[in-house]
Amino acid sequence: MDIGSKWRIFILQSYNKCFCNLVAGQTYEEENTDLLTGWGVNFTEPYFLQLQNAANTYAESFEYKHTLLSYIGRINYNYDERYLFSATVRRDGSSRLSQNIRWGTFPSVSVGWRFDKESFFPFNRNIVKHVQRYAPAMVNSVNETSVNTCIRL
């Protein structure tokens, strides 16, 4: 039985040429497993195939529960569609790990500059739009990605 829940809060704010959005969220996942295994060999009667009628039997059972709790926060800032900033932090806790390493924090920061929006940009602005449209197509054409896969453009 798997249980999961998610919630998110979005806050959008803009003022003149500034735009900012804030996203906060939490996820919770729970996995419960019950397992029963058994086998028997050398049955004395071929018509009564029950484990207790076997000469040699083996049976085991176990159950486990795993949980994953995550908190997520992100802020995006945009000034005049030219200067971009984004910061993200994620805090994950897993019951699969030992007590002293159960929680981990994973930050990320990025900055961007849309030089095609500057007045000194000497080329036709449509060239940059075509490059932007082409780049995601290259990323999406990859058939197999995993956690350990890095894609460079």
How would you describe this protein?
The chain is mostly beta strands and 153 residues long. It has one helix at 125-140, and strands at 2-15, 18-43, 54-79, 83-94, 103-113. Strands 1-2-3-4-5 form a five-stranded antiparallel β-sheet, with no helix packed on it.
Layout of secondary structure:
Elements: E1 2-15, E2 18-43, E3 54-79, E4 83-94, E5 103-113, H1 125-140
Antiparallel strand pairs: 1-2, 2-3, 3-4, 4-5
Give the structure's gist in a few sentences.
This protein has one helix at 125-140, and strands spanning 2-15, 18-43, 54-79, 83-94, 103-113. By secondary structure, it is mainly β. Strand 1 (2-15) and strand 2 form a beta hairpin.
Flag low-confidence runs.
133-153
Oligomer: single chain
Termini Cα gap = 41 Å
Structural class: mainly beta
**Main sheet?**
5 strands, antiparallel
Name the overall outline: elongated
Strand proportion: over 45%
Calculate Rg over CA atoms.
Answer: 28 Å
Query: Strand tally, please?
Result: 5
Mean pLDDT: 78
**SSE series:** EEEEEH
Which strand order spans the largest sheet, edge to edge or round the barrel?
A: 1-2-3-4-5
Helix content: 10-25%
